[in-house]
Specification:
By secondary structure, the protein is mainly α. It has one domain: Metal-sensitive repressor, helix protomer (Methane Monooxygenase Hydroxylase, Chain G, domain 1, Up-down Bundle). The chain is about 70% helix and about 0% strand. Helix 2 runs antiparallel to helix 3. The two termini are about 20 Å apart. The N terminus is likely disordered.
């Protein structure tokens, strides 16, 4: 899957948070900019999801009623979707916007990446 790599200078918010989406020697890609409040909310949600998953494990071990387990699975799915929505918003607002503004190869790669993401994550 093609991926866009944009320097921190390509997006005005990037300098405040650090580099993003660019490959640094080790091939590690990072977001162009991540709002600290959004990151904190996502980490809180993910910790809560970890607890939900441990609870599901326990429910299965204890042979709990199937409908109750399925309800909890649905709740965990929705919590993951909420994290995904936050990540998608950040990606569009910062990473995609910077790559599209850069134009050329970066823009085209970002368009491909976004189309791939829509197909993969709309299921």
């Amino acid at each position: 899957m093609p991926s866009a790599h944009v320097s921190a200078s390509a997006h005005p918010d990037a300098s405040a948070v650090g580099c993003g989406c660019a490959v640094h020697g080790d091939g590690d890609r990072k977001a162009v900019a991540v709002d600290p409040d959004t990151k904190a909310r996502n980490l809180t949600r993910l910790r809560r999801i970890e607890g939900q998953i441990r609870g599901l494990h326990k429910m299965v071990e204890e042979d709990r009623y199937c409908a109750d387990i399925l309800t909890q699975i649905s709740s965990a799915h929705e919590a993951l979707r909420a994290v995904g929505r936050e990540l998608m918003r950040n990606h569009l607002k910062h990473c995609a916007a910077a790559a599209i503004a850069a134009g050329g190869v970066e823009r085209d790669a970002m368009y491909d990446e976004l189309v791939d993401m829509m197909y993969k994550h709309s299921r």
